[in-house]
UniProtKB/TrEMBL annotation:
Keyword Ribosomal protein: no
Isochorismatase-like domain: residues covered: 3-139
InterPro entries found in the cross-reference section: Isochorismatase-like_dom (IPR000868), Isochorismatase-like_hydrls (IPR050272), Isochorismatase-like_sf (IPR036380)
Keywords: Hydrolase
Protein name, entry field: Isochorismatase family protein
Amino acid sequence: MKALLVIDFQNGFLQMGDYNIEKEKVENLAKDFRRNKQPVIFIRHKDENSESPIADGSEGGNIDSDLVKYADNIIEKSTPSAFFKTNLQEILQSLGVNHVFVTGFNTEYCPQFTAIAAYDRGFQVTFIEDATATVNDESTYEFPGLDIRDFVGSVLYWSNVIDVLNYEEYVEEYVEVELKS
């Protein structure tokens, strides 16, 4: 069984830029998983730093209200990996999940760490590159010309253990096949 992981789609991140395209892709993925009776699991980063845009207990720390309605489960984490010191693995195993699809914020942190951790735990992993986003840019890393999302996607793809797709490729590979069956 497949499951969708939606990582840190929290108000504080969404308010830092225009992420409507990424949000729409995540919502379409969530609708597809729900339609196929596959779990949609949201992960919320619990940031104890009161200065953080996603500070715990603040409006910024809440999951986007348009998306949270798709959540079958909400897992709270405090590190980049959604598996570290959480019950995510137990929930996935209890649901019979063997394939996770990863989306979320910030591409180069939590989605990437979670994708790698999922692989290390024996899950088949598909990273939906253009359904991730980051509030960071080339100036954050002092790396002119850096496209963070593309770089992370390339590294994961080249690993030969994590499948990396864009949303349209996901639709071609998974949605059309399921609709024809």
